[in-house]
Design goal:
By secondary structure, the protein is of the alpha/beta class. Helices cover 48% and strands 14% of the residues. It has a five-stranded parallel β-sheet, with helices on both faces. It is globular.
C-alpha cells in the first residue's frame, strides 16, 4: 500500500511522513522528489521547466520506482509529495492501480494565513521561500476544484505534525 501525503509546499508533509512511518509497522518513506532530482541531474539537461513534474518521464518513473520498492520490501510506502495538477495525479494513481497497489491519499491542509506563517518561519528551507509562496494559489485552486474531493483531508491548521501523523496512522489502521 501507498500512503500519499499531498498538500502545498510548507504544509508539513516531510515532517509528518517521518512520524507516520514510525507509527505504521513495516513502512518506509519514499520521497518522489528524489526521482525529480535524478532527472534534474541529467546532462545536458532536459528541456527547461520550472517544475520537474512537467517532464513526462517523472510520473511513470515514480510509479515504477514505488512498484519496484514494494515488490522488493512489501509493506507500506509513505510518500510525501505535492501533486497539484489533476492530470498528473490521475496518471500516477492509474499507474499504481494498474499494478494493484492500493493508495490512501491524504491532503495536509492549512488555511492560507497559517501556511504563510509557516513559510515565513521555516528554518529548514529558509524564511519566505519564493518557491513555496508561489504554490499557495495553485494549491488553493486545486483544493477548490479537485484535490480535496480526491483525498482524505487532514486540517493541520491547529495540529502539530505528531497529531496529524497520529490521525493518519489511525485512519490507515482502521
Amino acid at each position: 500500500m501507498i500512503v500519499w501525503l499531498n498538500g502545498t509546499h510548507g504544509a508539513g508533509k516531510t515532517t509528518t511522513s517521518v512520524l507516520v512511518q514510525q507509527l505504521i509497522r513495516d513502512s518506509r518513506v519514499f520521497d518522489a522528489e528524489k526521482v525529480g532530482e535524478t532527472l534534474m541531474d541529467i546532462t545536458p539537461g532536459l528541456p527547461e521547466t520550472d517544475n520537474f513534474q512537467h517532464w513526462p518521464p517523472w510520473r511513470p518513473l515514480v510509479v515504477e520506482t514505488a512498484r519496484r520498492v514494494l515488490d522488493y520490501t512489501g509493506g507500506i510506502l509513505v510518500m510525501p509529495m505535492t501533486v497539484l495538477v489533476e492530470q498528473y495525479w490521475r496518471e500516477i494513481s492509474a499507474g499504481l492501480s494498474q499494478h494493484g497497489i492500493p493508495v490512501r491519499h491524504f491532503v495536509l491542509h492549512a488555511d492560507q494565513d497559517t501556511l504563510r506563517g509557516r513559510i515565513a518561519d521555516d528554518t529548514v528551507v529558509g524564511p519566505n521561500s519564493w518557491f513555496r509562496l508561489r504554490y499557495l494559489e495553485p494549491y488553493a485552486e486545486a483544493a477548490r476544484t479537485w484535490l480535496h474531493a480526491e483525498a482524505e483531508v487532514v486540517d493541520t491548521t491547529h495540529l502539530t505534525p505528531a497529531q496529524a501523523a497520529q490521525q493518519i496512522a489511525e485512519a490507515i489502521k482502521s
